[in-house]
Design brief:
The chain is of the alpha/beta class. The chain is about 45% helix and about 15% strand. The chain has eight helices and five strands. The chain has a five-stranded mixed β-sheet with strand order 3-2-1-4-5, with helices on both faces.
Length: about 220
Amino acid sequence: MSRSVLFDTETTGFEPLTGDRVIEIAAIELMNDLPTGAQYHVLLDPERDIPSDSTRVHGITNADVVGKPKFAAIVDGMLEFFGDAPLVAHNAPFDFGFIDHELSRLNRPPLGRPRMIDTLVLAKTRFPGMPNSLDALCRRFDIDLSARTRHNALLDCKLLAEVYVELTGGRQRGLVLETTQGLAFAQYERAENRTPRPIVVDEVTLAAHGAFVARLKDPVWLKE
């Protein structure tokens, strides 16, 4: 089984080098590109104010992060969930850049770009010249967007997981596997639980069959 982790962040702005910080991290575990149900989610105190322009994007206000842990308090748990798995994100350099900057503030090593899988790059390769935002991809793959009134790291992860399945063909692989396993199990169950049922033919039916065979030329039923 191949494990990877899909993650997303929400931030106070667009540029960590000028003081913007991470305020939300969400991640979903994938096995063979399919969600397992295991997830990680945390809201953070960014140790600075959240601009109103950013709040309009993700809906997180200064009041929402009062009393929330700082990045230093959750870093070990986040890294433990990430493990050494490949890391999937949409426009991944943005999320990697923010997480790596937070790690550098604690003198921790960066995530490592070889681990990066960017679904935006995958989408542009598959749909060149077309809109490839998360919203656009969800609409293209007929994925329900009704709950996405604003950016939200955990919801975006769940939507992106569905998009990633479509981009990688994971749904078809899983469906074939489940169907094959299901049919094999069903056949096994039928074989194991089958009760022999003898077929008894009455004399009238036997006589009718004999009369029918007698009218045939060289019938196979009379050959040994």
